[in-house]
Design a protein that fits this description.
Elements: H1 7-12, H2 14-18, E1 24-29, E2 34-39, H3 43-54, H4 59-70, E3 71-73, H5 79-84, H6 92-97, H7 100-113
Antiparallel strand pairs: 1-2, 2-3
Protein name: Phage XkdN-like tail assembly chaperone protein, TAC
Length: 129
């Protein structure tokens, strides 16, 4: 059973909360038979990605955008890598390396690192008469 969060709890965790580092996660990607590292996005970036996903004109680009910016290992922003793969746009590297379903899954994992879609659960309590 969970406990209620109090002001005293928050104050006791003040320094840890203020100095909280971005979380990372290692994912295994089957199509390349290797692991990648993703990093938690900032709040502003996550909001931008969610807005892109809701915009009919840009929704198909949202996952690619997230993966391009939040995969930190390997560095998909490396100019030489993009050149060697013949990328016209920098984000082309994402669709060259990963399968479409993998791009979507990686993007979802990135947003989950930022707390979207996980980490919060509804508490059901029975009301007794």
């Amino acid at each position: 059973m969970s406990k209620k969060l109090t002001i005293a709890d928050l104050l006791s965790q003040k320094e840890q909360l203020k100095k909280r580092k971005k979380r990372t996660m290692t994912l295994y990607i089957e199509s390349v038979d290797a692991e990648i590292i993703i990093e938690e996005p900032s709040r502003a970036f996550a909001m931008e990605a969610l807005e892109m996903a809701q915009d009919d004109k840009r929704s198909d680009q949202a996952d690619t955008h997230v993966v391009y910016h939040c995969v930190v290992e390997p560095n998909l922003k490396d100019k030489e890598l993009q050149k060697q793969f013949g990328c016209v746009e920098p984000t082309d590297i994402v669709d060259i390396i990963f399968r479409p379903g993998e791009v979507s899954t990686i993007s979802r994992q990135v947003l989950e690192l930022a707390g979207y879609g996980q980490g919060v659960q509804k508490v059901d309590r029975e009301i007794k008469n």
